[in-house]
Amino acid sequence: MADSTPILGDDGLTLKAKLRQAERRNKLKTFGLTVPLLAFILVTFVFPILLMIARSVDNPVPVRAIPQTLEALQSWTPPTLPAEATYRLFAEELLAADETGDLGRLASRLNYDLPGSRSALTRLGRALRRGAEDGQSYRALFEEVDPRWSEPEIWAGLKALDGRLTGAYYLAATDRTRDVDGDIVLQPENTRIYIGLYLKTLWVSLLVTLFCVLLAYPIAYQLATLPTGRANLLMILVLLPFWTSLLVRTTAWIVLLQSQGVLNDILVALGILDDEGRVQLIYNMTGTIVALTHILLPFMVLPLYSVMKTIPPNYRRAAISMGATPSRAWIDVFFPLTIPGLGAGSVLVFILCIGYYITPALVGGRTGQLISSEIAYHMQSSLNWGLAAALGTILLVGVLALYWIYDRLVGIDNLKMG
Amino acid sequence: MDATQAAVRFEGVQKSYDGETLVVKDLNLSIAKGEFVTMLGPSGSGKTTCLMMLAGFETATRGEIYIGQRSINRVPPHKRNIGMVFQNYALFPHMSVAENLAYPLKVRGIDKAERETRVLRALDMVQLAPFANRRPGMLSGGQQQRVAVARALVFDPDIVLMDEPLGALDKQLREQMQYEIKHIHERIGVTVVYVTHDQSEALTMSNRIAVFNDGVIQQLAPPTELYERPSNAFVAHFIGENNRLDGIVRSRDGDICQVELGDGSMVRSLAVNIGGVGSRTTLSLRPERVTVHAKAGEIDNVFAGKVEELIYLGDHIRTRVSLCGQDDFIVKLPNSDRHAMLEPGANVHFGWNAGDCRALDG
Q1: What is the CB neighbour count within 10 angstroms for residue B13?
Q2: Does A335 reach chain B within 8 Å, measured CB to CB?
C-alpha cells in the first residue's frame, strides 16, 4: 500500500523528493566546508607532485629542435659515422635552433646524458654561424670544430635524445647510462652516486627509527602510567624540540657536539679521551643521526602514548590473575596492543626521515648528507630539474612501496596517530 | 563455621593508601568452600579494596589473608590460582575468544590438545562454542560477559572473584546474567567472591552477603536474613526500601521495647540493636509490612495517617502518607482487587506488628 500511493507533503512533493532535497542541502554544506582545504591541497600538493612526475620524463627540446636529424639517425647504427646528408641536416637544424635559443637547451640536455658534451655543441653552433668554407664537407667542418664529432658516442647520444618522453633521468638517477649501442649499462664506478646514497638514506632512516623506538617506548610508557600532573610536565619535555626554532637547536648541537664542544671537553676533562683524540660528533653522519633522532622523537612518542593510554590496566591484571608472571603479561598482552602505535610512529618517523633536508644540510657536513641534499643540489645549483624530479619520484614511489608493505604486514587500519 | 575449613579467611585485615585513613578497618571474614559470598556496599566502602587484596593487586597494611590453610600475604598474584572477572571484562582484544580462554592454560604449560578440550568445555558451559574464533570486539556485551566468566573458570581456580561484572549491561541482560552466573556456580560449586553495589544482584545470587560501609562489614548474613532482619540502620536502609522513624527508647520488656517518636506517639518495636532506656534509636519498617485500615487490638501499632500521594507502579501502588509527624512515610499496596484504592487526602488507619518494626542504632 505504501508503494502504490506515494506519501505527499503539504506542498505536494513526495516524501522521497523531500528527503533528497534535505540531504542534498546537507551534502552541499559538508562539501562546502571541505572545499577550501581540498582546493589548497590540490593546488599546493597534488598538482606540484604531478608536475614533478611529468618533468621527470619530459623531453621537449630535441624533438622540437632537431626532428629531422633524429629521424635520419634512426637508420644509423654505430660504430660507423652517419652519412654526410645527416651532417648537413643537423647543421641546418642547429642553425635554426640557434635562432630560437633551443641550441643552448639542446646542449644542456645532451650534457646531462654525456657529461662534457655541451661544448661540442655550442662550439659547433658558433662555427656554423660563421659558415662553412667552400668545398668543405660538413663532416670535415664538424671534426675540425671538435674531435668528438668523429666518434660515434656523441652521435649515439643524439640518437638517444629522440622521443617526447625520456627515461634518461631515471637512468641517471639509478647510476645507469646508455652505451654507444643504446644498451643500458652501469656508469663507471667513480661516478655512481645515487644508489649508494639511496641505500645510505634508507639505512640512516632505519637507524633513526630504531633509536626513536628505543627512546620513545619507555617515555611513552611512563607518560601513560604517571599521574596527569607529572605526565604533563614530561610531555612538555618531549614536545620541546617541536617548540624550539631549528636554528636554536642547531646552534645548541654545534655547541655541544663539535670537537671543541661541551661533550668533548667533558670527556677530555674526565680523562676518557686525550686532547688529541677528540671525536668528531657533528658535520658528519653522527651529527645527522643525533639531530634527526632528536627532532623526530615526538612523532614516535605521541602515537605510542595515545595507544598506551587506551590500554586499560585491567588487561595486565587479568593476565596476571590467570597465572602469567608480570613480565609475561607485559609481553603477551601489553606489548601486542601497542603495535599500532609503534607502527604509526615508525612509519611517521621513517618517512619524515627519508626526505628530511634541512637538518642534514646544517649538521651533516660532507659525509652526513642524504638523498634530499642531492635533489636540492639539482634543483638549485645544477638546474637539472629532470634529474631532481626523477630522484624525487623514486623517493615518492619508495615511500608508497613502504606504505604498501606496511599495509600487508600490519595493516593500515592498525595505524593509530592519536 | 570452623575456621580451618574456610576456603578464604581474612583475619584482622586493614588497608590504608595514604597512611592516615583506613579504607578497610579490621576485616574478619571466613568464606566456606563452594560458597557464593557478595561484598555489597556503596562506592568507597572498601569492598573492591578487599577483593583486590584477595587477588593480590593490593597488599594488606595489616592482618593476614588465608586461602585454605595458607597465608597468601607474600604470594604474588599470579601464583594464587584465583580466577577473576573484571569490570568491563578485560578480554584481550587481540586474541580470539578461544585464545582468550586458552591463555591461562597456556601460561600453565598445558599441552595443546588438553587446552582445546578444556576451552571447548568452558565455551559449552556458557553456550558460546560457535563464537570460538571471533574477536571479543565482535561480541555483544552479554556474550563478552560470558566469555569473561568462562575464562575465569577454565583453569579450575580455587576461587573466582568478580568485580562488578554486570555493571556495563542493561537491566534485562543483567538479570539474565545473574541467573546464569548463579546456575554456573551451583553446577560447578566453585567458591565465588562477588563485589557489587547493586542490592538486587546480591540478593539474587549470594549464599551470604557482606554489607560494607566505611571500611567495616556492617552485617554478614544470607539474603533473606539481611532483608528481613537487618542488624543496623545502615543495612536496613541500604537493602530494600525502608521507612525510618527516629525516636527515644522509653521502656524495654525482653525483645519488645516502647519507642517515643518526635510527635509523642509510642511505637511497640522489636529491640534489635538499641542502647538503654532513654537512648536514641531508629525504627526500620518495610513499606510492604504496613497494613491499611488496621483496627486496634488486631495489630500491635495503629496510627491515623493522611494519604498524600499515590504513585502507580504497575504491580504495586506506592503510597506516601503523613503519619506520626512524618510526611514521607511510604506504604506499598499490592495491585490486586482485594485492596480497595485509596484516595489522596483520605484519612486512614495504618498498622504494623511490633516484630516488623525493628529498633536499630540511632
Answers
A1: 23
A2: no
Rounded distance between C-alpha atoms, residue A161 and residue A155, angstroms: 10
What's the pLDDT at A417? 56
Which cell numbers in the block locate residue B328? 514521607
Which residues have a Cβ under 8 Å from the Cβ of A98 and sit 6 or more positions away? Answer: A125, A128, A129
- Summarised one tens digit per residue, pLDDT across range A265-304 is 998 999 888 888 888 888 889 889 998 998 899 999 999 9
Q: Which residues of B touch A331 (CB under 8 A)?
A: none
Give the number of C-alpha atoms closer than 13 A to the C-alpha of residue B118, restricted to the C-beta side: 21
Q: Does A331 touch chain B (CB under 8 A)?
A: no
Contact across the interface for A320 and B92, Cβ inside 8 Å = no
**For residue B2, what pLDDT is reported?**
54
Q: How far apart are CA B122 and CA B184, in angstroms?
A: 11
Instruction: Say how far residue B178 (Cα) sits from the centre of its chain.
Output: 12
C-beta neighbour count of B92 within 10 angstroms: 20
Please state the rounded mean pLDDT for residues A377-392: 92
Domain ranges in chain B? 3-233, 243-361
CA atoms within 13 A on the CB side of A236: 5
Whether B107 sits inside 8 A of A337 (CB atoms) is: no
**Within a 10 A sphere around the Cβ of A84, how many other Cβ atoms?**
12
Q: Is the peptide bond before A79 cis (omega within 30 degrees of 0)?
A: yes
Banded model confidence at residue A228, pLDDT cuts 50, 70, 90: confident
- Taking only the tens place, the pLDDT of each residue in A130-163 is 876 667 788 888 888 888 888 888 899 888 888 8
Which domains can be identified in chain A, with CATH numbers? 61-163 (no CATH), 195-414 (1.10.3720.10)
Q: Does residue B225 carry a pLDDT above 50?
A: yes
Indicate yes or no: CB of B84 within 8 angstroms of CB of A312: no
Is the Cβ pair A318, B88 closer than 8 Å? no
pLDDT digits (tens, 9 = 90+) for B276-311: 888 889 888 888 888 888 887 788 888 888 898 888
The answer to whether A328 contacts B90, with C-beta atoms less than 8 Å apart, is: no
Task: Tell the CATH topology of B3-233.
Answer: Rossmann fold (3.40.50)
> C-alpha cell of A53?
612526475
d(CA B360, CA B355): 13
CA distance B253 to chain A (A): 54
DSSP H or E segment with residue A266:
helix A262-269
Q: Which residue has the cell 490486586?
A: B336
- The architecture (CATH level 2) of B243-361 comes to Beta Barrel (2.40)
Parallel, antiparallel, or unpaired: how do β-strands B36-40 and B208-213 relate?
A: parallel
**ipTM of predicted complex:** 0.82
For residue B44, give every residue at least 6 positions away whose Cβ sits within 8 Å of its Cβ, in sequence order, or none. none
Contacts A336 to B, Cβ<8 Å: 94
